[in-house]
């Protein structure tokens, strides 16, 4: 028996919003430690890595590991039925069952809805990424990254990100012209530390990425006020959104190579 | 051609091992293409009775451009001589062709156009000259080619097995028996015919059928391959049951009721097995590194326009496309940065949707730590 209760159903809703356009279906791996999900998009350019730790749930019961293969499209449709303040309970029986149940309860406990989704068989694969000591780690407001992606998408399809100690430059060029946006580390001491832009740069790094994927990642902006970009020459960038008390949602994006 | 009914058998017994995909999702992949079967297809597809040398080159030229413009890196593998064992099959094909020729003659006199076309397609052969022209064309286009000492499929499998290419592109299911880890079908006509590409993964096929590679080879022989006759009265269903039960061809034959299922007169299964296991190929590490060069514009113009009589405008357009995609940056794939760990699975409840994986917690913690930075 697996049962996990989350105080905010909206959290899972936000997570789904940001990943459902990248992957059609994925396995939610439930273990005593928590729920995790790893999936690549159809073109194998991005990898989603979601970790939700057990301690972040209101209650969490999982005596035996199991994989819940779900269509993310169906799941996001069902999550739309949850009110913003509803709590969410996920229930699955061990082996025999071929469905998983989602229960939404309103805060005043005057409305309870439950939905069953059919499980699908998805090849069970686990990915491990080579460890890397990144040349540049940028922490910045997530809304800022979202805006940069939105603005630059108007001009072109490929973004060049160059980072050094002084700042991070996002450049795009297209048929109609080109554009640059540079973000500098916060120097204003009035800004609280958790909202400040911080650049840890060991060496300058320049990478090219398909902008449409980066824009897609920024759909996760509602999950966290800050986002972290970790980059090294020639390897995928990691765009990571911390989910408070619960875990994180990370996106890996393979670079374009000349 | 290929293994009889193998596709159906895989569809029934290991449905998850066949994936469908679209051409553009294979960008950045190196694909070893069995050129001989592709050539044969162009000839059939492009209606045989027009000057075949021309259609052939045209097909090769445009379809290769299509692959390259989708970011795929093709390597063409050409047939050498056919193995001795195949002579039986080849003789049969010859006979069929002869028969078709006679039918064609008859059809041209009394039959409908449809019939004429049907028989015309059957007499198609790929000539040595056409092969050489294709090699010349591809070299001018800057695409790497490999001349196999024997069968092209076997050479493709060797290249894929050693990781020099990601998949084999062929219509022949032999490729799996020969050990290609991934096989792509319909690579050339998927977009034109609006059919998805079929992707077969060898390991999942074996897992699904519950066989080892050696047993899979014996199954292929039992189903009927190009190299020897199959046993009369044994269809795909019986064949898989027999191999699953008895494991080897020797045991299958031992337990077979010979009065009901007589062995064919000529049944050198041990030699055929050896042909699948150790085919005559150039070891992949002895092949030169595959390089995709810039197209030779002058050479292409001379060959296609002057010698073959193609329209110069269309050739110029094709060359433009080739050059454009040579110079754009290439999107890399996550596959090159990650390693895939197969999750432990309990073979007994494979069919169930929710699988219990008892040893997973430990694997999970190990995985988490690899994700931690610093």
UniProtKB/TrEMBL annotation, chain A:
Q: Which Gene3D superfamilies does UniProt cross-reference here?
A: DNA Polymerase III, subunit A, domain 2
Checking SUPFAM superfamilies in the record gives: DNA clamp
Domain Proliferating cell nuclear antigen PCNA C-terminal residue range list? 129-256
Q: Which Pfam family name is an example for this entry?
A: PCNA_N
> What GO annotations for molecular function exist for this entry?
DNA binding; DNA polymerase processivity factor activity
Q: InterPro entries, per this entry? A: DNA_clamp_sf, Pr_cel_nuc_antig, Pr_cel_nuc_antig_C, Pr_cel_nuc_antig_N
Q: Name one GO cellular component term.
A: PCNA complex
Q: Function of this protein?
A: This protein is an auxiliary protein of DNA polymerase delta and is involved in the control of eukaryotic DNA replication by increasing the polymerase's processivity during elongation of the leading strand.
Q: What is this protein called?
A: DNA sliding clamp PCNA
Species whose genome carries this gene = Dictyostelium firmibasis
TrEMBL record, chain B:
Compositionally skewed regions (Basic residues) per UniProt:
365-374
**Which residue numbers delimit the XPG N-terminal domain?**
1-100
Please, one GO biological process term? DNA replication, removal of RNA primer
The free-text cofactor remark is:
Binds 2 magnesium ions per subunit. They probably participate in the reaction catalyzed by the enzyme. May bind an additional third magnesium ion after substrate binding.
Query: Which of the seven top EC classes does this enzyme belong to?
Result: hydrolase
Outline the subunit composition: Interacts with PCNA1 and PCNA2. Three molecules of FEN1 bind to one PCNA trimer with each molecule binding to one PCNA monomer. PCNA stimulates the nuclease activity without altering cleavage specificity.
Q: Could you identify this protein by its name?
A: Flap endonuclease 1
The opening ranks of the lineage are: Eukaryota, Amoebozoa, Evosea, Eumycetozoa, Dictyostelia
What gene makes this protein? repG
């Amino acid at each position: 028996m697996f049962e996990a209760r989350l105080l905010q159903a909206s959290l899972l809703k936000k997570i789904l919003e940001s990943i459902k356009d990248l992957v059609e279906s994925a396995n939610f791996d439930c273990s005593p430690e928590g729920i995790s999900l790893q999936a690549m998009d159809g073109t194998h350019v991005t990898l989603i890595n979601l970790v939700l730790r057990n301690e972040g749930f209101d209650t969490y019961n999982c005596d035996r590991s199991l994989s819940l293969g779900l269509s993310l499209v169906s799941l996001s449709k069902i999550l739309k039925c949850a009110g913003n303040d509803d709590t969410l309970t996920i229930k699955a029986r061990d082996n025999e069952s071929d469905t998983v149940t989602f229960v939404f309860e309103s805060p005043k406990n005057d409305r309870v809805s439950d939905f069953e989704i059919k499980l699908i068989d998805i090849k069970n694969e686990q990915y491990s990424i080579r460890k890397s000591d990144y040349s540049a780690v940028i922490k910045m407001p997530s809304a800022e990254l979202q805006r940069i992606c939105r603005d630059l998408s108007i001009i072109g399809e490929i973004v060049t990100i160059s980072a050094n100690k002084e700042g991070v430059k996002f450049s795009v060029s297209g048929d109609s012209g080109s554009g640059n946006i540079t973000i500098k580390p916060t120097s204003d001491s009035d800004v609280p530390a958790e909202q400040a832009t911080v650049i840890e740069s060991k060496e300058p790094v320049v990478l090219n990425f398909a902008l449409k994927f980066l824009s897609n990642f920024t759909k996760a902006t509602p999950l966290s006020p800050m986002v972290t970009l970790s980059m090294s020459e020639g390897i995928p960038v990691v765009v990571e959104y911390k989910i408070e008390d619960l875990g994180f949602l990370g996106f890996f994006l393979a670079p374009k190579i000349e | 051609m290929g293994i009889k009914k193998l596709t159906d058998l895989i569809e029934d017994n290991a449905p998850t091992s066949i994936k469908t995909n679209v051409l553009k999702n294979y960008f950045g992949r190196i694909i070893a293409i069995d050129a001989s079967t592709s050539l044969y297809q162009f000839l059939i597809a492009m209606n045989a009775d027009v000057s075949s040398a021309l259609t052939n080159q045209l097909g090769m030229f445009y379809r290769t451009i299509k692959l390259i413009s989708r970011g795929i890196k093709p390597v063409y593998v050409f047939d050498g001589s056919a193995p001795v064992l195949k002579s039986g099959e080849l003789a049969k094909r010859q006979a069929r062709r002869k028969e078709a020729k006679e039918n064609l003659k008859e059809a041209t006199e009394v039959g409908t156009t449809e019939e004429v076309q049907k028989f015309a397609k059957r007499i198609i052969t790929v000539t040595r000259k056409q092969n050489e022209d294709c090699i010349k064309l591809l070299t001018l286009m800057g695409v790497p080619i490999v001349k196999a000492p024997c069968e092209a499929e076997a050479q493709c499998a060797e290249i894929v097995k050693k990781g020099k290419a990601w998949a084999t592109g062929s219509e022949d299911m032999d490729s799996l028996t020969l050990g290609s880890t991934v096989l792509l079908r319909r690579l050339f006509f998927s977009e034109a015919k609006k059919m998805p590409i079929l992707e077969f993964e060898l390991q999942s096929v074996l897992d699904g059928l519950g066989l080892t590679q050696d047993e899979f080879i014996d199954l292929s022989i039992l189903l009927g391959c190009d190299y020897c006759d199959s046993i009369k009265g044994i269809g795909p269903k019986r064949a898989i049951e027999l191999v699953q039960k008895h494991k080897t061809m020797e045991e299958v034959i031992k337990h077979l009721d010979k009065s009901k299922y007589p062995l064919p007169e000529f049944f050198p299964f041990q030699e055929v097995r050896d042909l699948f296991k150790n085919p005559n190929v150039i070891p992949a590490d002895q092949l030169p590194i595959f390089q995709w060069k810039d197209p030779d514009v002058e050479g292409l113009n001379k060959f296609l326009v002057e010698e073959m009589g193609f329209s110069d405008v269309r050739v110029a357009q094709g060359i433009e496309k080739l050059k454009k995609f040579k110079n754009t940056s290439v999107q890399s794939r996550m596959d090159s940065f990650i390693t895939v760990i197969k999750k432990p699975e309990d073979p007994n409840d494979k069919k169930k949707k929710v699988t219990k994986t008892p040893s997973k917690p430990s694997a999970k913690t190990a995985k988490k730590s690899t994700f931690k930075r610093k």
